[in-house]
Structure prediction request, 161 residues.
Amino acid sequence: MRLMMNECDIRVFVDSIKIDDNGCWIWQASFRKDDGYPLATGLGVGSMGAHRVSAMHWVGDVPFGYNIHHACRQKTCVNPAHLEILSTVEHRAAHADDKKGATHCNHGHEWNDANSKTYARPDGVVVRSCRACNREAQRRRVAARSPEERARRNALRRVAA
Ligand SMILES: [Zn+2]
Ligand SMILES: [Zn+2]
Ligand SMILES: [Zn+2]
Prediction:
């Protein structure tokens, strides 16, 4: 979907921003309540994400289901030069890269070669998983087994051996 603002809309749009030191066009008007994304109203499109309006006007066609990604990681920014039109898969991959910069997993295990396992999910996105977390999850699964389940597994193991 493409959107062309007229002169008047563009003036309203530009009056709603403040440019910060990074060149981000920080939206000053309203914001979506649930996620804080900038909201444009009264530009002939009802109400719509201001970053989306910016991308549709200045960047290009936004196909249905595509996401507007902030390359600057500033979600209130509406500078078209900082916006990318990405599919959901591409968008997830872009944010997975954010996490690559982290030194520890969400549970505090260090990311190093021995502790990381990368694999491609069915949707093609490459993700990294923490071996220490996986080991702990496995231990919890074993501990949660009932005595009957444990006996059954031991019996199976004896048959196999
Ligand atoms: Zn920006
Ligand atoms: Zn994004
Ligand atoms: Zn971990």
Summary: The radius of gyration is 24 Å.
